[in-house]
């Protein structure tokens, strides 16, 4: 899915077997459904959880749902095998800004539910910044945010229920709530973020 989006957007996308990723595996993964059901059938039929850690230089800044800076952390979280799916950002109820060394001059916002989290690491070689926004936990106006952050590309990545089911109303709310507010990014400046800002100023 990430590769299809990158190709449609006209940005680079390295192959999985390139040095852009480090492949790793967790054996014995039974998934969230086992946690809910404690089904012996699931416990006795584990899978190998395969994931790819990007080697691109990046910085991951975590924010509140109203874009107040919280901390700088990791895009790929250390987890035990049972919670392997939490490896991707480790959270849904925060905004995450991933600044990379991609150097493409492009910024994207990914509007997602938890199904969109695993897509983020695969786009770190394609976009200078990736804003990860959960449609259930975002208190700003999405149109204002896209415009004020200089976002060039928007991706909706979610399961079908979020588009046509219980979460669908959240998508409409994102573009109507809290219009017209000035949005400020208070994350500490680093060499990576300065490089992205320099690219922005050249384009301007």
* Low-pLDDT residue intervals, each spanning 5 or more residues: none
The number of helices is 7
Number of strands: 8
Shape: globular
Query: Order of helices and strands, N to C?
Result: HEHHEEEEEEHEHHH
> Strand percentage, roughly?
25-35%
Kindly name the structural category: alpha/beta
Helix content estimate = 25-40%
Strand order of the largest sheet: 4-3-5-7-6-8
Q: Quote the distance from N terminus to C terminus.
A: 31 Å
Taking all Cα atoms into account, the compactness measure Rg is 18 Å
What is the mean predicted local confidence, pLDDT?
Answer: 91
- Biggest beta sheet summary: 6 strands, mixed
Could you please describe the fold and organization of this structure?
Helices cover 25% and strands 25% of the residues. By secondary structure, the protein is α/β, with parallel strands linked by helices. The strands form two sheets. The chain has a six-stranded mixed sheet with strand order 4-3-5-7-6-8, covered by helices on one side. The protein has a two-stranded antiparallel ribbon with strand order 1-2. The relative contact order is 0.16.
Question: What is the strand and helix layout of this fold?
Answer:
Layout: H1 2-9, E1 21-29, H2 31-37, H3 40-43, E2 47-54, E3 58-63, E4 69-73, E5 95-100, E6 107-112, E7 129-134, H4 142-148, E8 153-157, H5 160-164, H6 168-174, H7 191-203
Parallel strand pairs: 6-7, 6-8
Antiparallel strand pairs: 1-2, 3-4, 3-5, 5-7
Entry summary:
This protein is α/β, with parallel strands linked by helices. The chain has helices at 2-9, 31-37, 40-43, 142-148, 160-164, 168-174, 191-203; strands at residues 21-29, 47-54, 58-63, 69-73, 95-100, 107-112, 129-134, 153-157.
């Amino acid at each position: 899915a990430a590769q299809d989006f990158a190709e449609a957007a006209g940005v680079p996308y390295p192959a999985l077997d390139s040095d852009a990723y480090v492949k790793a595996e967790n054996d014995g993964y039974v998934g969230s459904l086992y946690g809910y059901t404690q089904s012996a059938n699931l416990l006795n039929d584990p899978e190998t959880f395969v994931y790819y850690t990007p080697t691109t230089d990046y910085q991951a800044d975590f924010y509140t749902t109203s874009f107040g800076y919280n901390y700088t952390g990791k895009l790929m979280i250390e987890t035990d095998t049972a919670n392997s799916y939490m490896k991707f950002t480790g959270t849904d109820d925060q905004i995450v800004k991933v600044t990379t060394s991609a150097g493409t001059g492009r910024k994207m916002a990914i509007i997602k539910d938890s199904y969109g989290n695993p897509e983020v690491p695969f786009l770190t070689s394609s976009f200078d910044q990736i804003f990860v926004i959960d449609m259930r936990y975002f208190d700003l106006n999405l149109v204002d945010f896209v415009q004020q952050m200089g976002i060039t590309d928007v991706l909706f990545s979610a399961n079908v229920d979020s588009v046509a089911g219980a979460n669908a109303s959240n998508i409409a709310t994102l573009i109507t709530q809290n219009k017209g507010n000035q949005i400020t990014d208070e994350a500490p400046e680093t060499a990576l973020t300065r490089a992205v800002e320099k690219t922005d100023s050249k384009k301007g």
